[in-house]
Amino acid sequence: MRVAIVTESFLPQVNGVANTVRHIVDRLVTRGHEPLVIAPAPGPGHYGDVEVLRVRSFDLPRYRSFPVALPDLSVERRLAAFRPDLVHLASPIVLGAAGLRAARRLDLPTVAVYQTDVAGFARHYGLRVDPLLARWVAHLHRRATRTLVPSHASREHLEGWDVPNLHLWRRGISLDLFGPRQRDPLLVRSWTGGDPSLTVVGYVGRLAAEKQVRRLREVAAVPGIQLVVVGDGPERPWLERHLPGARFTGLLRGAELARAFASLDVFVHTGASETFCQTVQEAQASGVAVLAPAAGGPLDLVEHRRTGMLYPPEDASLLRSHVGTLAASPDLRHQLAERALRQVSQRSWPQVVDELLDVHYAAVLAPAGHAGHPTAA
């Protein structure tokens, strides 16, 4: 099977979309299929033995680490030459729109994955185009053969825009990388200064406005904790000024990231616009108690006081209160972490991508699944 993956982001960018595409490509190759990746420049023209067609792009003015591809005729030309069995659209917005248009002209089935709340992203950056962006994203998904959503909240969102043929497809977790075994007492000691009375509370992710990371100032006010911030982004200078007692690790990857995750006592997520929230899964797989907003993707991943704790995203007092409760209750942290670890142990990336291939790809490739394209809305 030949699969063309048109993605809004790919390596060397580090984010949920790029990471998911990487795992899909790896599994396709392992199973003997032939993928092609079409992604924004800059970046290498190959990922292993897989071709990556790079399309010219520009940097967002306030988010320069996220290049946005420009519509390019090379997309349709390369798809026509590659002759894929289907086109996978990873979080389609701009480049994905070009890929969708080309696929429809070539009469190719499409699987579109909704992964980024671009309207919410724009709203957090003060761009008054969020209704327009929401309509545009819904328009693209209405024209795809099948749309995959990562959570029930995402499904409800797209149903509200009359997007048909929605199917739940969650993200996987690298269980060979993340785990409680990665906990490092020396790292914990370096964070706490050797003070065993401190509970290590950490945030892991992009330090950006859409993640609402300035709420970490509320977390830092809880007594008896050591706040650790793992990641990088445009909000880091503000956080460093306002959180003088926090430890900042910068961007971590691979084994270093797994070690940092497992060395936390509590993981706190601050963003309320997550379609899934992969870092919640990674914390759970690391054996760490999770506190997340009761909104969006975390609602599918965290059952309050069973596999983690949830707080109303608008309630600062409850955010602080729940951090304090977890900091003071090692037994509660252990119980929450243990149940969550059992829950995520069945979500390896190979299992999740096999579901993509054997269920969702198979459905659009079947004669009944590809009876023409959905009409434009």
Automatic annotation (TrEMBL):
<dbReference type="GO" id="GO:0016758">
    <property type="term" value="F:hexosyltransferase activity"/>
</dbReference>
<dbReference type="Pfam" id="PF00534">
    <property type="entry name" value="Glycos_transf_1"/>
</dbReference>
<feature type="domain" description="Glycosyl transferase family 1">
    <location>
        <begin position="200"/>
        <end position="340"/>
    </location>
</feature>
<dbReference type="InterPro" id="IPR001296">
    <property type="entry name" value="Glyco_trans_1"/>
</dbReference>
<feature type="domain" description="Glycosyltransferase subfamily 4-like N-terminal">
    <location>
        <begin position="14"/>
        <end position="176"/>
    </location>
</feature>
<keyword id="KW-0328">Glycosyltransferase</keyword>
<dbReference type="Pfam" id="PF13439">
    <property type="entry name" value="Glyco_transf_4"/>
</dbReference>
<dbReference type="GO" id="GO:1901137">
    <property type="term" value="P:carbohydrate derivative biosynthetic process"/>
</dbReference>
<dbReference type="InterPro" id="IPR028098">
    <property type="entry name" value="Glyco_trans_4-like_N"/>
</dbReference>
<keyword id="KW-0808">Transferase</keyword>
<dbReference type="InterPro" id="IPR050194">
    <property type="entry name" value="Glycosyltransferase_grp1"/>
</dbReference>
<protein>
    <submittedName>
        <fullName>Glycosyltransferase family 1 protein</fullName>
    </submittedName>
</protein>
